[in-house]
Structures are given as C-alpha cells and as structure tokens.
C-alpha cells in the first residue's frame, strides 16, 4: 500500500497519522491497534496526553503477535514543558520510551515553545488564580534541544542536522524541515 510522505532531512514521515490526544483510557489502545491493522504508518504520542503506557501495550501486541514491523511505523512523541531543563530531558525521554515499550522514537519534539516550572508534581503548575507558572530559570530552547541530542541512539548521518556537537538521540530516523 502506498501512502503520502514528507521527505525531510534523512527520513520520510507519513503525512497521515493517528493522533492520540484526548483519547480516553481503555479506548486509545484499541484505536492504535485498529489504525495499525488498517495500514496507518504514523502514530503521534506525547507524555502530557497521559496515555503512553496503554499505547505501549498496544505497540507490544501489534509489533509482536500482530505481525506489524516496528521499522514500518513512524512514531512521534514530545518532551513536555515541565522537562525543558537539561538535567530533566533524558529522564523524560526514558519515561516515554518505557511507557511506549520502545527502544527508539522516530521523532521527538519539544511539545510547546514554553517552559513550565518543574518539580511541582503536576504537568500544569498554576497559582491559585489558575495562571501557569512559567519557568524563569529555563534554558534557551537551543540548550533544551542540545540536551535532547544527548539521550542516546541516532543514526550517524542525522547527527549534524541536530547540532554540530556529538549527538545521539534515541531516534532511528530524524528529520528537520
């Protein structure tokens, strides 16, 4: 089956994918399984959606007994806003990989271009008036991006696309447009 892709950098990303935002617990796993069974080649995930563990169970099932090859599926996830500091990036990526039951992602993005205060046991730290706590100590996005590049496992040919330093994201394919 052919499907449209965007050629960027060293990879091709399927332009149609299943988004998992606001997918309800107990439903998202079945949706992922159905999408993969129907030929979807791109699944979009994120830590903040709080459903990656259920999706991971479906990936394990479909990449095992389901007959779907992992290398045929493009999987995206995103670094959440409370993990922008360099010392938090690797643990955030590891959590995503563990929850998704994967050893790599095809694309790992900074979710939103804002940093929220970390360490408050919530993904949306707010004051009593429901105003989000922005992280005034957050590094520039270039430092967050560089820290994302130090989390382990990208193809050698993709490293120069991320930064001039020795980088190894847990990505097999990587693209920049």
Description:
This protein has 177 residues and is an alpha/beta fold. The chain is 28% helix and 13% strand. It contains five helices and six strands, in the order βββαβαβαβαα. The strands form two sheets. It has a four-stranded parallel beta sheet with strand order 3-4-5-6, covered by helices on one side. A two-stranded antiparallel sheet has the order 1-2. Helix 2 (52-63) links the parallel strand 4 (42-44) and strand 5 (74-79). The longest helix has 15 residues, at 86-100. It starts with a strand and ends in a 15-residue tail after the last helix. The model is unreliable at 153-177 (pLDDT under 50).
Short description:
This protein has 177 residues and is an alpha/beta fold. It has helices at 28-37, 52-63, 86-100, 141-148, 159-162; strands at 5-8, 11-14, 18-19, 42-44, 74-79, 107-110. It has a four-stranded parallel β-sheet with strand order 3-4-5-6, covered by helices on one side. The chain has a two-stranded antiparallel ribbon with strand order 1-2.
Helix vs. strand class: alpha/beta
The tally of helices reads: 5
User: How many runs of DSSP E, i.e. beta strands?
Assistant: 6
Helix coverage percent of residues?
Answer: 25-40%
- Average residue-wise pLDDT: 83
The profile of the biggest β sheet is: 4 strands, parallel
Radius of gyration: 17 Å
Instruction: State the end-to-end CA separation.
Output: 25 Å
The geometry reads as globular
H/E series: EEEHEHEHEHH
* Content of β-strand: 5-15%
């Amino acid at each position: 089956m052919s499907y449209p892709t965007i050629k960027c950098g060293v990879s091709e990303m399927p332009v149609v994918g299943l988004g998992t935002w606001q997918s309800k617990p107990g439903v998202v796993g079945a949706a992922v399984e159905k999408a993969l069974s129907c030929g979807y080649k791109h699944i979009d995930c994120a830590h903040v959606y709080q459903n990656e563990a259920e999706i991971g169970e479906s990936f394990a099932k479909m990449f095992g007994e389901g007959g779907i090859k992992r290398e045929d599926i493009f999987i995206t996830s995103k670094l959440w806003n409370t993990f922008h500091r360099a010392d938090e990036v690797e643990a955030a990526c590891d959590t995503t990989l563990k929850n998704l039951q994967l050893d790599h992602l095809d694309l790992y993005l900074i979710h939103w271009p804002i940093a929220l205060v970390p360490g408050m046991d919530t993904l949306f730290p707010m004051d009593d008036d429901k105003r989000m706590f922005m992280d005034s100590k957050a590094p520039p996005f270039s430092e967050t991006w560089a820290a994302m590049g130090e989390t382990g496992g990208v193809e050698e040919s993709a490293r120069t696309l991320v930064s001039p330093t020795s980088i190894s994201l847990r990505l097999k394919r990587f693209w920049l447009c």
